[in-house]
Amino acid sequence: MKEPQKPRLTTQVRAAIRTLNYSLYTERNYVYWIKQFIHYHQLRHPIEMSDNAVNSFLTYLPVILKASVKYNHSFLVNGFSLCLFFNMQTDN
């Protein structure tokens, strides 16, 4: 008999965000950036990655995408918020 599969990462993130009463906009934003992060790292699960993976992703965005300064700031704020969110979830 097969063990039931764990919910997908995005489903787990959505559930965690909803228990924290974050806005729907924040939920969509976090899920979007999580997907971008995972695709940047060739579909590896974030639990398999180190802190260097986050640094690499945050460095990649403004350099490769040639985003404006305002857009870069948004990337960094969202990336930092997302890292804090992941740390809070994994510490509990």
Q: State the secondary-structure class.
A: mainly alpha
What gyration radius follows from the Cα positions, in whole Å? Answer: 14 Å
Share of residues in strands: under 5%
Indicate the mean pLDDT. 76
CATH topology: DNA polymerase, domain 1
Q: Residue share in helices?
A: over 70%
Summed up, the helix count is 4
CATH architecture: Orthogonal Bundle
- What's the name of the CATH homologous superfamily? Tyrosine recombinase, N-terminal domain
How many strands in all?
0
The largest pleated sheet is described as: none
Q: What's the overall geometry? A: globular
Regions with little confidence, pLDDT below 50 for 5+ residues: none
First and last CA, distance: 31 Å
User: What's the number of domains?
Assistant: 1
CATH class category name? Mainly Alpha
Task: Write the element-wise H/E pattern from the N-terminal end onward.
Answer: HHHH
